[in-house]
Amino acid sequence: MKTLYSQAALLVTALVSLPAMAVTAEQNAFFDRIAAQCGKAFEGTVTAGNTADSAFSGKALIMHVRECSDTELKVPFHVGDDHSRTWVITKTPYGLHLAHDHRHQDGSKDKVTMYGGMTANMGTAEQQLFPVDAYSINNFRDNGLDVSITNVWHMYINQTEFTYRLTRDERDFRVDFDLTKPVTLPPVPWGHK
Fold first, then answer.
1. What's the confidence (pLDDT) of residue 6?
2. Which residues of the chain have pLDDT under 70?
3. Which of 91, 144, 163, 191 could be 103's S-S partner, Cβ–Cβ 3.0 to 4.6 Å?
4. What predicted TM-score, i.e. pTM, was given to this entire model?
């Protein structure tokens, strides 16, 4: 009998020590809305930007909800023939984390990669904010990108549209993707299988 109680106590201890994933219902609902598009790609349009965003002009902008698990989504963002960017949204014990996985054409990691941030609050099922985190601030400073140390990334999703937005002092970049019209799947993003 003592052994049974010991095993039960160990099981309860193990379960209690497991990290909670995406601690709010709103974050889970947001994650699930994106995951519901898994396997599909959508074209976007720049709806806010400035001269810093000229690399996006006149190019097809395609997001592809490509890899989906219960805890992580990988969404490549293709800009014309540039397949270097993948948004990685991960459930953590502290909320949702957004990272930007940047690769070179040979698949190697860019020196400015995996930057992003953790959700600032519970958000809603339709929107989440990701203020820049300490890792990213250090990475930006190490690479001469001090202008980026106040970045806040925003993601919005509803029945018809997904939006990726970056704001900081003197910058507001936004791309809106039409979820009502899936497009042909883009190539495999650089550095992925």
1. 45
2. 1-22, 52
3. 191
4. 0.87
Planar angle of CA 40, 41, 42, nearest 5 degrees? 130
Distance between CA atoms of 191 and 110, rounded to whole angstroms?
A: 11
CB of 176 within 8 A of CB of 149?
Answer: no
The Cα 87–Cα 187 span in angstroms is: 16
Residue 59's Cα: distance from chain center in Å? Answer: 21
Q: Where are the beta strands (DSSP E) in the chain?
A: 41-48, 61-64, 67-68, 72-79, 82-92, 95-102, 115-118, 127-131, 152-157, 161-168, 171-183
CA atoms of 161 and 119, how far apart (whole Å): 21
- If one looks up domain 21-183 in CATH, what number appears? 2.40.128.20
Q: Do 48 and 6 form a contact (C-beta atoms < 8 A)?
A: no
